[in-house]
Specification:
- The protein is an alpha+beta fold.
- It has two domains: about 35-150 and about 395-475, no CATH class; about 155-385, Transposase Inhibitor Protein From Tn5, Chain A, domain 1.
- Helices cover about 35% and strands about 20% of the residues.
- The chain has 16 helices and 18 strands.
- The chain has an eight-stranded mixed beta sheet, sandwiched between helices. Strands 3-17-18 form a three-stranded antiparallel beta sheet, covered by helices on one side.
- Helix 1 runs parallel beside helix 5 (about 100-105), helix 1 (about 40-50) packs parallel to helix 16 (about 465-475) and helix 3 (about 70-85) packs across helix 14 (about 400-420).
- The chain is elongated.
- The chain starts with 13 loop residues before the first strand and ends in a 9-residue tail after the last helix.
Length: about 475
């Protein structure tokens, strides 16, 4: 089809295959349009939680404020909300800085950027990628351009405080899940080591969740045990839980990588006691304890079709690494022609606690219903890695990569709070962060800015208008800082 031109030389049209008798043409004359209309929900939530403003208080800003056009809270809101929307790379902000809707969400009073001092900056309301890069590198680069420094201890404490703050004060039981995962390194970053289990150069971040809420995200090198730093993390988390929920029973749950004397002894030494349930790596002594159980399981498997399991409870102590005998539960599982032994160690009482469901901590129930439930935490980590891009630790320095991990974690926290506080009862109440972004946050929006208001016209054909309406109703009723007391 021959190219046809319009009378106006600009903007240049793009002509596509005709639709019957109608010409199909497109150009870039639509004005201020964004594909992220749902960021308004995140903005409302962030305002209620005071999250990015609290995060800004964990930084020191030594810039001359007379010349500052992007305040610290605005920079952090731009970065955290950008990650939540799927813009994980700083390069994305080189074009996103022209998006007036993200500027509204970040708190810019002039979302069109017409009040910028330099003529070349007019129309760019948000900070550039280089400005955000200086923010991230402030703890590593010492120059006149790097005047913002993060306080790591305060940021870690804020994450614990905000995560624990989601608990109701009368909560009677809090389960803290610990886990480590690999964060592959593709360059010559600081702290680069090869990990034999994962088979690559990687970091080994330590995560802690309470339910679906992150409370700890520590970037570590991969040259040490997976449990390194767990006691320090538990000290901070448990202390905060005690303050928030003074009558709560606390249980720590993790796989065999955290079954270490230091962690178990610390839990047992607390007053009141902190309970634990850890996976336990098998050895020849443990396997001998399951010989009778496997004999019974094999007989059962022959009768029911090749699959059976038996549980045994016994007291066990290692030859030299444990300081005391502990309760161990073994699972003797037969999968057709394969034995699948598994073990856990715990200080949870077999008789359970007053008011609990009867038999809750008996061997089979403790393993199948309680310990195996820790797998849900792995789903949360996958969301943070795959949907919130926590693995974009590509700067040279450990400190700036740790900051990136925290920014991703706070972005995940916002999305999790949106799901919990605003999407309950909808088809998105159990959706992943990526699905919520795709289905609810990615809405076409036309932005019109006048002296009196910012008018945002969302796409009329948006399929989940009822869910957006419910989320808006729920968020506008939240009191300020409702979950960050």
């Amino acid at each position: 089809m021959a190219l046809q031109t319009f009378s106006s030389p600009t903007p240049r049209p793009f002509l596509f295959e005709d639709l019957g008798s109608r010409q199909v043409a497109a150009d870039f004359s639509g004005g201020h349009i964004s594909s992220d209309g749902g960021v308004l929900l995140l903005r409302q939530l962030d305002s209620s939680l005071g999250l990015t403003s609290k995060l800004a208080s964990c930084f020191s800003d030594h810039r001359n404020q007379k010349f500052v056009e992007h305040s610290l809270p605005e920079l952090l809101a731009q970065r955290v909300l950008g990650i939540a929307l799927g813009y994980e790379d700083l390069n994305d902000h080189d074009t996103m800085r022209r998006d007036p809707l993200l500027a509204v969400a970040a708190g810019k009073e002039d979302p069109l950027g017409l009040d910028r001092r330099q003529e070349r900056d007019k129309g760019y309301a948000l900070a550039s990628d280089s400005t955000l890069n200086r923010l991230e590198l402030g703890n590593n680069m010492k120059s006149r351009a790097h005047k913002i420094q993060a306080n790591p201890e305060e940021i870690a404490a804020l994450l614990v405080r905000t995560g624990v703050g989601t608990l109701k004060k009368n909560t009677r039981e809090v389960v803290i899940d610990l886990d480590a995962t690999d964060d592959p390194i593709h360059g010559k970053q600081e702290g680069r080591f090869f990990h034999g289990y994962y088979g690559n150069y990687c970091y080994l971040p330590l995560y802690a969740f309470i339910g679906e809420v992150p409370v700890w995200a520590e970037l570590r090198t991969s040259d040490a045990d997976a449990s390194r730093g767990s006691v320090q993390a538990l000290e901070a988390i448990v202390a905060q839980v005690r303050r928030r929920c003074p009558r709560a029973r606390i249980i720590v749950r993790a796989d065999s990588g955290f079954c270490r004397e230091e962690i178990m002894a610390w839990c047992e030494a607390q007053a009141p006691q902190v309970y634990y349930c850890f996976g336990l790596a098998r050895n020849s002594r443990l396997l001998r304890e399951l010989e009778g159980a496997f004999f019974s399981a094999h007989i059962t498997s022959c009768l029911v079709g090749g699959v059976a399991r038996e549980f045994r409870e016994f007291e066990y102590c290692t030859l030299d690494s444990w300081s005391r005998t502990r309760r161990v539960i073994g699972k003797a599982e037969v999968l057709h022609d394969k034995n699948n032994p598994r073990f856990i160690v715990t200080n949870l009482p077999a008789q359970g606690f007053a008011g609990d469901e009867a038999g809750r901590f008996t061997p089979a129930a403790l393993y199948e219903n309680f310990y195996c439930a820790r797998g849900e935490m792995e789903n949360q980590i996958k969301q943070q890695l795959m949907d919130l891009h926590a693995d974009r630790t590509s700067t040279h320095f450990m400190a700036s990569n740790q900051l990136r991990l925290w920014l991703s974690t706070f972005a995940y926290f916002l999305v999790e709070r949106l799901r919990t506080l605003a999407l309950n009862g909808t088809k998105l109440q159990r959706a992943s962060a990526g699905t919520i972004r795709l289905r609810l946050l990615k809405i076409g929006a036309l932005i019109k800015v006048s002296v009196r208001r910012v008018y945002i016209q969302l796409a009329s054909g948006f399929a989940l208008q009822d869910i957006f309406d419910q989320a808006w109703q729920a968020l506008r009723c939240l009191p300020q800082e409702s979950v960050l007391e």
